[in-house]
Amino acid sequence: MDLVFIGYGTIAHIIGAELKTQHMAEIKIVGVLDPVITEDQTRELFAENISVYKDIDQVIERKPDLVIEAANTEVAKKYTPFLLSKGINVMSMSVGAYLDPKVMKEIRNEATGRLYLSSGALPCVDAVKAASVRGINLVQLTTRKRPLALVGAPGLSDLDVELDKIKEPCVVFEGNAIEAVKAFPANVNIAATLSLAGVGPLRTNVKIIADPSVTRNIHTILVEGDFGKLESTIECMPSENPKTSLIAALSAIALLKDLISPVKIGS
Ligand SMILES: NC(=O)c1ccc[n+]([C@@H]2O[C@H](COP(=O)([O-])OP(=O)(O)OC[C@H]3O[C@@H](n4cnc5c(N)ncnc54)[C@H](O)[C@@H]3O)[C@@H](O)[C@H]2O)c1
């Protein structure tokens, strides 16, 4: 399987390294598109037979089996529908992009490729999907992160909060998933995935807590419905990017394994 990365940052590097250590020879990275690739990086990539593309047309022309978007929400909105309309499969990490109804409409109307959204840091995504087949009454996500992980979020500008001065846990956001993704786009992909797997963004409640006592990104989901009740907490080690949990990249590897395996586990 020929693979191209759009966005060659933390997640792409973890995936690249993991493909080597897991000896997943069926998957070959053939190119990357990222505007901030240095000359040194370009040389290293060329040495591994990996092309550095300047624009999306070069990616389309290469026609890889899969593109992994690991850049940001705006890039995902711009390129995913386009790539899918050209019959190219996309695994997209910036899941918040798909809460935009215009993006989803374009994908539904024009895609001939398939879009894969990995579970990221969301625990029990299969159970949420199964539960949503019948009625769900309540979906709540509570995310607890160290204040550093929230730096730069647009949602902080309206609050009277200085992240480096927080001494006690402090609720910095409460609302639905649409509002959460706007206010904390780099932090709450998990809210977007939970919405898409469950009952949609308007009925998915999100609370974000800046907590100086935690070192991990902690997410608790609570779902209640006809199936019963699901409560699950995951404590995620951050990656080199404090906003991104290591397991987000590992979940992309797990999905890649599913794509090349004759056996698929889970719903
Ligand atoms: N699905 C999940 O559970 C989950 C979890 C964590 C992070 N994410 C998301 O995955 C994405 C990548 O995360 P990361 O930690 O690797 O980020 P990162 O900041 O380490 O890397 C992003 C890369 O994208 C590149 N980029 C920026 N604009 C670009 C453009 N126009 N075209 C191509 N590349 C461009 C940047 O130069 C950078 O190298 C983010 O959107 C993040 O929110 C998803």
Molecular structure report:
- With 267 residues, the protein is α/β, with parallel strands linked by helices.
- The chain folds into 2 domains: 2-120 and 247-260, 3-Layer(aba) Sandwich (Rossmann fold), CATH 3.40.50; 125-243, Dihydrodipicolinate Reductase, domain 2.
- The protein has 9 helices and 11 strands.
- The strands form 2 sheets. Strands 3-2-1-4-5-6 form a 6-stranded parallel sheet, sandwiched between helices.
- Strand 10 (217-225) and strand 11 form a beta hairpin.
- The longest helix has 15 residues, at 246-260.
- The chain is globular.
- The two termini are 23 Å apart.
- The model has no long low-confidence stretch (mean pLDDT 95).
- It binds nicotinamide-adenine-dinucleotide.
- Nicotinamide-adenine-dinucleotide (NAD) binds at residues 6-11, 33-36, 70-73, 75, 93-95, 120-121, 186, 189-190, 241, 244-245, 248.
Break the fold down into its secondary structure elements and pairings:
Layout (H helix, E strand, L loop, with lengths): L1 E5 L3 H12 L6 E6 L5 H9 L3 E3 L2 H7 L3 E4 L3 H13 L3 E4 L8 H10 L4 E2 L8 H7 L4 E10 L24 E7 H7 L5 H9 L7 E6 L6 E9 L2 E9 L9 H15 L7
Parallel strand pairs: 1-2, 1-4, 2-3, 4-5, 5-6, 7-9
Antiparallel strand pairs: 7-10, 8-9, 10-11
Helix pairs in contact: 1-9, 4-5, 7-8
The structure holds nicotinamide-adenine-dinucleotide (NAD).
